[in-house]
Amino acid sequence: MPERQARPSTDEESAPLLRDSNNPGNGGPHPPPSTSPSITDKLGSILQNPLTTLNKILLILLLVFLLLSSIFIGLFMGSMHKLNGKPDAPGDHPPSTFTSTVTVPSTTTATVTTTSVTIITGAPAPGPSNPPEEKECFTPDCVMLSAAILSSLDTTQDPCENFYEYATGGWRKAHPLPSDKGRFGNFNLLFQENQQIVKDILDGNGPMSVGLLKESADQQLLTKLRNLYHSCMDEDTLDQLGEGPLKDFAGHVKKLYRGESTSVTYVDDDDQRREGLTAALAFLHSRGIPGLFELGVEGDAAVDPNFMILWFQQPRLGLPSKEYFEDEAMREVYGGVLERLLIVHYDGGGEEHSPPFLVNNEDSVNVWPPWPWPPWGDDDDDPKHGPKNATELAEEVVKFEWKLARASLDLDILYQDPLFTYNKVAISNITETITQVNFQNYLATLTPRNYPEEVVVTYPEYTRSLTSILNDTDADVLEAYLVSRAALSLAPRLGTSTESWKATRTLQEVLQGIKPGAIGDRAEYCANSVDQALGFATGRYFVNETFAGDSKEKGTKVITDIVKAFKKSLSSIPWMDKKSAVAAAQKADAIRVKVGYPVSPDTLSAPSLLRYYTLVKINKFEYFNNMLSASVSDIYKEWQQLGKRRDLDAWEMTPATVNAYFNPLANEIVFPAGILRPPFFNKNWPAYLSYGAFGQAASHELTHAFDSAGRLYNQEGKLEEWWTNATSEGFKVKQSCLEKQYSSYVVDDGYGGKVHVNGNLTSGENIGDSGIIQAYRAWKVQYADSFKAGNEYLLPGLNFTRDQLFFIAFGRIWAENIKPAALVQRIRTDPHSPAQFRVDGTLHNVPEFAKAFNCSPKAKLNPPPEKRCLLWSS
After folding, report:
1. Exposure of 707 by Cβ count < 10 A (0-12 exposed, 13-18 middle, 19+ buried)?
2. How many domains does one find in the chain?
3. Mean pLDDT lowest among 41-50, 211-220, 513-522
């Protein structure tokens, strides 16, 4: 149906507001006689008789009233003209005038005078144009949805110059950054809303959970969930336990490292050190705590992506990325945090095997480690093994991690080049290289019945560097490193009054720019902890309360429509030849689409979930150990897949998660129920909003299958070059264009400096964001049928076209406030670009956006074709 034409401009409306009774040609013919005089007759009668004082006063009031009415109407019509008129290019609007002529009688004579009021209006910015004529929806839901969209906007901004501010400025102003967070946006807000639903279930307030309590299995499952939640909420018990749980854990790590908790008969000192390090590492890794390296289970990408094998890669560091170790100020902060942790966990504390360790004091003669050290015998005269105090030991640990960071592969290569990071070798390759670890004993701890013969090493050079680093590191420094890794990971599970909790919180405050001492809502933290530990169990009740009816069907339709649009576009992409286009279409057809929650038989039934979480032992008074139990269960389930076929029904994200993902080896795109909620999706929304908002997530994940890394996996998830050489070279040109575009963007580091976005690191995600054009095309293809079905209805008060609202829906989901420190951390570690560039950087390459908002050819977001990076368009 055609869009409604703009209403006439106010300067075309020339009819007088009052007729002149003495001049029918001016105001039209006189009305027919009536038994009672009309207002015109009364006015004429007054003018024909001498004016009394009262009449003069009344006429003056009438004149004032008419003048004010004229001005009001002029302003109103001018505003409507500015809102409804089709905007021109920015800067090309001449001022317009509106003249209203009002005829009024003189207050002193019987004559009539004419007064003209001229109103000058300024140039309107690019914006809404020509809304359709159809009736708008005025149900409460429609009104609330319209209000939510309007409140997110900042219409003082020019959408063609800064659409991110235009689409999100109102939301950002209304949602100031909480003092306990370095970053808060629409994703975080929806996460809080989802966690509130989970919290109500855990508190016993959820309506579905009450009914399900009639079933015995649900009673047991909910009891497990609620005990974990209440153990987290019981801050009194946490304060009473103090540092105890973490000190016990760290103490056990030290005993293992020193060989005090193993039954191995050591042959010599080197074997003792090797077995001690092996036992400590296996203990930490089996509980999800990183250190030295990481071993995990994933498909064999180059041979059989559904056969699960062992992968070896570099570890997570105590600081977010290697760049932080190059920053002297950050190293000092990190060293100070480690010093505080080491003091806590080496101060004796009643542990029989913990040596004395006092706070730095030049007058103190008590230092740690005790002399001689290490206990398995080194040369007492070796200066490397002299006693160290807390400050010295913390500094040595920082230097040790700095060496690991320098030896690690850069994240842009790790994330973007799966061919480079696939290096399958015999297991002997790492067992004979990293001789300081007994891998046979290590692997027996994690998978006692399945010793692998091969392993994929993501960066072989790291294994050789690690060996050299370990040879040059004192035993006491290595032990302190292991203890600090445990403390950094587990201290957040202690009471907030403990020194360990405060120390790790200090580090997060600096890294994210959080206000010192600001603590968030405990219930939100605890609900999230339960979802992390037992997420599929909470998901059972979450989907019952939030994902009913045909939500899954409608969400799936958006995704499948986008897949169809993508396939259709392949034949018109200049850099892709016919052979590669056919193969790409086949891969798109082969992608498995998962929406909402796992649907394999009984996956979310209470009995199945009880079996799935059978290893998770929950005590309502032991939050620290409860979470450890959940970690052990997760690691155990992962390692049980070694040497088996991939479970194609498995999910990596739980139902309440506000996110989505593409798994290249399984060739699947997955959308949890948690993200299929406003502001991303609602089954009753008009389609132009659903395709603009949720369509962005759907097209993003689909496009990942063809991004810089995803394109290297074929339709079976196998790692290989399946495009022709010509197509690959053409793609690389477009990829290079995007890398240059995003590398030109900068952010303020909070200290007056500028930090550039890493276009290489963010390449894959930027390509994923470019998929918004596929969502737009999918919406257009289904529009006619959707309109007939009543699914393109208009919302009240939104003076925008549907095309404009599509892009507004896309832009507003990225609304976010973020501290400079958190923004710098994101640029250094996150393969996603900052939110502003995920909007403006993407739309820079979408001509359909510029057309929808009538952008000038000179506008920032309407560059000439040669300045655009058109990946999926001709």
Report:
1. buried
2. 3
3. 41-50
